[in-house]
Amino acid sequence: MYHEFYGFREAPFNITPDPRFLFFSDRHREAFNHILFGIRERKGFIQVTGEVGAGKTTVCRAILEELGPEVRTALILLASLSVLSSLLRRIWRGNRAEQALA
User: Fold this and answer.
1) Domain interval for residue 10
2) Mean pLDDT across the stretch 82-97?
3) Domain count, the chain
């Protein structure tokens, strides 16, 4: 209904955030740059926190697009502590196995 009225080429609202529509406020730009720095300098795990609707997921998706497919990343949304603990254990075991093979 409003697509024709406003002349939209696509739906402006989706279930998942679309980084093409991200407005970089000062805080969004700061978070974006800090996360990119952490990834590019191999600083380990990076956690993003904030209020619901603040743009955390959209910023993270924009970062994934910025990095491109040549960088191996994982975006974990709504993870519980038990899931994160299990993930960390698996990564630790995997790193130990790689070191043993080297």
Assistant:
1) 2-101
2) 76
3) 1
